[in-house]
Amino acid sequence: MPQHGPVVDSAVGATLQSPSIMADLPIIKKLEAEIEALDREFRITLPRLIREAAAQGDLSDNAEYRAAKQRQEFVNARITQLKHRLSGLAMINLASIPRDRAGFGSTVTLEDADTGEEKVFRLVLPEEVDAPLGLISAGSPVGKALVGKQENDEVVIRTPTVTRTYLVLKLRTIHDPEE
Length: 179
Description:
Elements: H1 19-22, H2 26-54, H3 63-90, E1 107-112, E2 118-124, E3 135-137, H4 141-146, E4 154-158, E5 163-172
Parallel strand pairs: 2-3
Antiparallel strand pairs: 1-2, 1-5, 4-5
């Protein structure tokens, strides 16, 4: 995999480098599995389809051949994109992620100042975002409001439809042991 130099992930806000923690992230495993599947398609399945389509004769009028070649171009581009993303993720420097404030990998428990309702959010990479599960990017309105906050801080979250005030009840950073 070619190295593209240090990459800063805007959602993480840091350069990364800690294989022990980063290699264990589910998103890393997911990207690696997608690369493996696409690589197999690129090396084995698509060449076979292209050979079979080419064997049908005139390539200028061969829709199967054109479709297989287009798929080959797409798969190659996607593999390159995924490898570039993995390379960027490998550059994350966990030492630059705060131990006492919300940042990448933090789980933040909030209490709504008006209703007392508790909400839990985890700051994740953009590929992992799942808002209904509380997995949010640092670049989202909620994520931007949480980054840098500590326990007992007041958080004002502004979304396009509402502004709410919360209290940070609990903060667990990426450096803290799993509970």
